[in-house]
Specification:
Layout: E1 15-19, E2 25-29, E3 35-38, E4 41-44, E5 56-58, E6 64-68, H1 72-77, H2 88-97, E7 105-109, H3 115-124, E8 129-134, H4 137-150, E9 156-160, E10 172-177, H5 186-192, E11 193-203, H6 206-218, E12 221-227, E13 253-259, H7 270-274
Parallel strand pairs: 7-8, 7-10, 8-9, 10-11
Antiparallel strand pairs: 1-2, 1-6, 3-4, 5-6, 11-13, 12-13
Length: 296
């Protein structure tokens, strides 16, 4: 595996990150005898190999850099891509909300450039596996190269096929749809997911989300949540702490749900309503509204 988060020193074959002036970042694979060319000079790999991580290093003309181990977020932001990728702010929330962890089998549709695929593969560990579908060969070729670069390729099976035909897998732990029309494939997703498993999707517009909510209810998905992640950084200066001038705001709506087994003959409907399986009439004007969040 070329991406190594262990150890104290940079080794031949490691993925490394150089951070220079104005926080300009470069990701490179260290190779003995190689050279990395930047607009701030040439950095020779031999001067990096064997250095402690966190060291200050210099190009041939004296430009300074810090030598760091790249984080998963660093690598995902720098992935070669042929499509828009999910941001780390969404990916992190997806991983936690869907309980992605060691040894799981995760199903994904919409491989794209493989950013979310890579995060899934990293989190499930060597004992887990990801199966990812996409209709475009060029997308999956890009994803395969990116997975190879991170040393995660063996954890992922790529399938080029339209998911309208359904998934080959059943009983998977979690399923994520990153496609423009996930509402057309909820029956197929339900067949592939284990009961009580985790479903997730991302969509850019409210109209698409509305269609997905209807489809999820029709296929007995409960505990439906819709949210968006807005991320604001601050200038890390003690004497003038304030928000930075730019922020990563709306990039998409995240939708999560759980497939459940229902015996409607013995349920009064109250629990079904609370679980989001049936519509609750809108309250009269002025009536109290329960806006409880999952955390409440």
């Amino acid at each position: 595996m070329t991406w190594n988060l262990h150890g104290t020193h940079a080794n031949d074959g490691d993925l490394a990150e150089l951070v220079g002036l104005r926080h300009k970042r470069f990701i490179l694979k260290l190779e003995a005898g190689a050279a990395f060319h930047t607009h701030r000079g040439i950095v020779y790999h031999d001067t990096l190999i064997g250095k402690p991580w966190g060291s200050q290093v210099f190009s041939h003309n004296g430009a300074p850099f810090f030598l760091l181990q790249p984080s998963l977020a660093d690598l995902l932001r720098e992935l070669p891509r042929s499509s828009q990728i999910l941001y780390p702010k969404e990916i992190g929330f997806i991983l936690v909300t869907m309980g992605i962890g060691e040894g799981q089998h995760i199903l994904e549709a919409g491989t794209g450039s493989g950013a979310l695929t890579s995060a899934f593969a990293f989190n499930v560990g060597k004992a887990g596996h990801i199966t990812s579908y996409d209709v475009r060969e060029d997308m999956q070729n890009t994803a395969a190269r990116n997975l190879d670069r991170l040393g995660l390729r063996e954890r992922v099976t790529l399938k080029q096929r339209n998911i309208e035909e359904g998934f080959d897998e059943t009983g998977v732990d979690a399923l994520f749809l990153d496609v423009p029309n996930p509402y057309d494939y909820i029956a197929q997703a339900r067949s592939a997911l284990k009961a009580g498993g985790f479903f997730g999707s991302i969509l850019p517009t409210v109209n698409q989300v509305e269609k997905l909510l209807v489809a999820l209810r029709q296929n007995d998905f409960a505990f439906i949540e819709v949210c968006e992640i807005l991320l604001r950084y601050y200038k890390a200066e003690p004497t003038r702490l304030r928000p930075t001038d730019r922020m990563v705001a709306h990039t998409g709506y995240l939708i999560f749900a759980r497939p459940v087994i229902i015996d409607r003959s013995v349920d009064s409907g109250t629990l079904l309503a609370e679980a989001g399986l049936v519509s609750v009439p809108a309250p009269d004007s002025g009536a109290e509204v329960d806006d409880a969040t999952p955390e409440d």
